[in-house]
Design a protein that fits this description.
The chain is mainly α and 88 residues long. 68% of the residues lie in helices and 9% in strands. The relative contact order is 0.15.
């Protein structure tokens, strides 16, 4: 199976959306459209092969797999941010 590029922007979008559980609020924080947030989330879901959110009339909730992914992904991206700040 060929290696596919990691969707880093989409992973960041996932973290922000998971914090808000709302596409509009995530879009506002990220300074992109709600549609762009949705497309980035969809790209990450396609890359991972499973859904990250359950969509409801009143917002979003994390799927069980996304709940497992969230804390470790958050830690790793924080570590990446610290590393890039150190070398800058």
């Amino acid at each position: 199976m060929p290696k596919r590029d990691l969707p880093v922007n989409g992973l960041q979008t996932f973290l922000v959306t998971a914090r808000h559980l709302n596409l509009t609020h995530a879009a506002t924080e990220l300074c992109i459209t709600q549609s762009a947030v949705s497309r980035q989330i969809q790209a990450v879901e396609t890359w991972l092969g499973f859904p990250l959110f359950m969509r409801h009339a009143r917002g979003l909730s994390l799927t069980p797999r996304a709940e497992l992914l969230l804390p470790e992904l958050s830690r790793i991206l924080d570590q990446l941010h610290r590393l890039t700040e150190q070398v800058r």
